[in-house]
Amino acid sequence: MNVPATTSQLQGPAVRVRGLEKSYKKLHVLRGVDLDVAPGSIFALLGSNGAGKTTVVKILSTLLKADAGTAHVNGFDVAAQPADVRESISLTGQFAAVDEILTGRENLILVARLRHLKAPDAIADDLLKRFALTEAGGRRVATYSGGMRRRLDIAMSLIGNPPVVFLDEPTTGLDPEARIEVWQAVKALAEGGTTVLLTTQYLDEAEHLADRIAILHEGRIIVNGTLDELRRILPPAEVEYVEKQPSLEDIFLTLVGADTDKEQP
User: Fold this and answer.
1) For residue 150, what pLDDT is reported?
2) H helix and E strand count, the chain
3) Coil, strand or helix: which one is 17?
4) What are phi and psi of 55, to 5 degrees?
5) End-to-end CA distance of the chain
6) Phi and psi of 51, rounded to 5°?
7) Most buried one in 5, 64, 125, 170, CB count within 10 A?
8) What pTM, to 2 d.p., does this model score?
């Protein structure tokens, strides 16, 4: 079962990465990635398709071994202490891993029982309430909208109270209304003290959610900071004598360029 982080483990960053490298034969996906994620924050790893975002998440979640560098999650070394890392995290991928035949409540109860937790019914009811799914809890997931399925998927990932959650492109394929539903759920996670590392290619998503944003380009972090810090990279534009702050899209395109043909898979 997942366990909450201890006080000692949270004295430093919830996630710390130094010099991370990964290659597939001659294809260099990660070329020395460094980043820190503060406990209880939302950290957005932003990049175009093929920039290496999912590779970072796979290494941090012990699904893939790095060629070089170190990574720690919740105080544990992902290479030397993979079991402890897996006890500390939850990973939600790009597609909702829910059983459409079961109801939302049955999905949650099933996961709680598989993790041998006490009072699985109470756990399911609490999560349905937290993610505004109580009324839909008795319906089969096949009847859910895309946003509801994604919220249920995130709720399932929280069973056992993991202190660190990785969300890999959680709104891929969702309509605007469903994306906003997921954004609200992610914000609620951080407000409850959960550390969230979010990968996304959507600039507005990072802009709305993240406490800090890192842009990954050609296997390296080329900038890392708060939105205000990133805005200071570009001077404000004046339109009819009205100062206009640069958007995250302006910053991203200036740093990596509009041509993404050279992106790594």
Assistant:
1) 86
2) 9, 12
3) strand
4) -60, -40
5) 33
6) -75, -15
7) 170
8) 0.81
Q: Write down the pLDDT at residue 265.
A: 42
In DSSP terms, 223 is beta-bridged to 215
Structure tokens at 241: 């004598």
Average pLDDT per block of 10 residues along the chain, 265 residues long = 42 93 93 96 92 94 96 97 95 79 95 92 93 93 90 88 92 82 88 93 91 95 94 75 77 74 45
**Tokens standing for residue 197:** 């590392």
Burial of 79 (0-12, 13-18, 19+ CB in 10 A): middle
Which tokens go with 129?
């309430």
* pLDDT one-digit tens code per residue, 98-124: 899 999 999 999 999 998 999 999 999
Q: How far apart are CA 20 and CA 50, in angstroms?
A: 16
Burial (Cβ within 10 Å: 0-12, 13-18, ≥19) of residue 241: exposed
The residues near 144 (Cβ < 8 Å, ≥ 6 apart) are 104, 136, 152
> 146 Cβ partners below 8 Å, 6+ apart?
96, 173, 174, 175, 178
Domain boundaries, the chain: 11-256
